[in-house]
Amino acid sequence: MRKSIKKSRKILKKNPRARKIRPGGARASDVCVVLDARRDGVDEIYSAAYLMIDRAYVLLEGDPKKSMRVTLRPRDVRTKASLTAVRSDFMSELAAQRVRWSITRNNQSIREYIAENALSLAAEFGARSEVAEPSAAAEQLTPDQRAEIEKLIAEVETEIKAMNEQKPATDPKAAVAPWEAGRLPGGENPA
Amino acid sequence: MTLAGSRLTSIASHLEREPRRVAGHAARRLGTRVLVTSDSGRWITLSHGEYDRYLSGGVSDDEPLGATLAERGLLRDRLDFAALGEAFSSRHLLRWPGPGVHTIVVTRRCNFRCVYCHASVVPEDDRSTDMTPEIARAAVDLAFQSSNPEMTIEFQGGEPLLNWPVVKFIIDYARLKNVVAGKRLHFGLISNFSLLDDAKIDWLVERGVSFCTSLDGPADIHDANRVYLGGNGHASVVAGLKAIQARRAAGAKIDSPNAICTVTRLALTRQKEIIDQAVELGLERIQLGPLDPVGFARRSWGRVGYSSSEFVDFYARALDYLIALNQRGVKAYEKTALVLLIRILRGEHWRFPNADGAARLAYDWDGGVYTSEDGRLLAADGDEFFRVGEAGRSNLAEILDHPLVKTSQYAALPWAQPMCSQCAYAPYCTVQPVFNYETQGSPWGRMPVNGWCEKMMGIFDVLFARLEDPAARTVLESWLEYKDR
User: Fold this and answer.
1) Where are the alpha helices (DSSP H) in B144-266?
2) Best interface-test mutation with A: which of B180, B183, B203, B395 has the largest number of A CBs within 10 A?
3) In this structure, is residue A66 part of a structural domain?
4) Model-level pTM?
5) Please, which residues 219-238 of chain B have a Cβ atom closer than 8 Å to chain A?
């Protein structure tokens, strides 16, 4: 511990800007919001912070049972105005999250009941229609159908053999060559 | 009181009292309105005043708004549990009978060099990546293990017609197997049409195969994007489409061909020409697909890419133009819009839902099985993360039990995604685990900075805004008829 304090002092001496680095890595040019996790709600804080990641880098610290600090660093240029906007956006998101989570919690037991009912319906359905056994359909083929399949396979093999024996398609105009490969030094196109 | 905020948008920030009557829902600001969607996907738009009143429990049962909220499952003490259970089950595919779409890559060879192609193609004369009949047979056998009574086999590449014998074999073999299995069996050929001649068309039409191609716009855009090594790409795709349409006009019982427009930067201001060309070719289905910075497209992104908001602006203009054409009597629809409208207006899926592994599987030329075609494309680029089995060695039960299939399902579950769980579009949207993995390093991704999410939210904003306009809504609702065909 003593060693790390000494190290920090050394850094501060060498780089005065480092004085602005706050606990947890926050800088003076970041937005820091300290919230009461019991009053503001952990889910609400997490959700609001998550929605900010398109506008800011977000760091969450603290004890989810007590107090939490949200540090927001704008993704674009950090001006006083952008910091104010990011803080305002975050507080707005947090306010909206209170409504969204309130609705969610009030309806959680109902949603669980609906999901349970749907799952029990699905279990009944699943019992009625198991995935077919491998090759079940093929095993029920008649001898004639099996002979037809063998004939199809023989035909396709003959066709493929003939196709493979054909010479590769000719390319008299060198269309297959990439444009860049066909360019002469100086940018002149041979075509 | 409303606030500016994240892409999720902020909603009323205060509750005057405990919202005892407010059922589980998500809300989103849409201009002067608030979109409120229930867990089951029923929805309503309210004024900000109405939404505040709803949240604070001030809407009574006696007023029309109270009745509407109750009918849409938004009042906690008036819920229809049977309907909610059914909707939950349908939305999460709890009774989905197994993979229904099986994409088979019969070769990685291709005669095109598209600027954005994901497919890591190999030269036309290198037959080392051609699927053999033995592997093709094993792939079909595996697909038939699915208990889904409906099955689609799609051919992808490379250019699948370069391995035409195996395409034919798979179709004939699957039809033969189906004599016993009795599924509703469909085939789709996804091709650049450059090798499509009359004999091939006749053979495919006779077996009811659907045709799908790429048409990126007028010739200058198409040929700049999709470089054909042996000729004129635009001319060959137009000729192919006309030939198929001629067969339909002569009575062939096949679907209207599908031509996907992959939107590159060149197309961003050309929506009218793109749609006019499709309409002139008699295409009912117009599909405007965004380009994603994944696979090979990542390398050419500087030339062909754009921001999500640029795509959404293009999409909005294109949709408005198509709606205007419909109002003048033209019969055509945009496919992404229709897929989403089916979920929004009917709570159903378009043919097959996009659920990696559970609803679809992809088979590479070597028999490798992947959770989706996107997962297979990633493997073609060297990352086998989404490989879940091998045709001939794995059975379907093992594949469905693979940790990656479960991971893909879990990652796609809105309740497992912190931002999706609060998004008003979650009942209709699909998370893309492969896209997330490729762009953000995890199947879950980080939605606040996820390009797919940004595009999808933009498209949903466009659709819901049009649904607020009665004239546009009439057109959009009429498109639902195409699902029933």
Assistant:
1) 164-181, 198-206, 219-225, 233-249
2) B180
3) yes
4) 0.88
5) 229-230
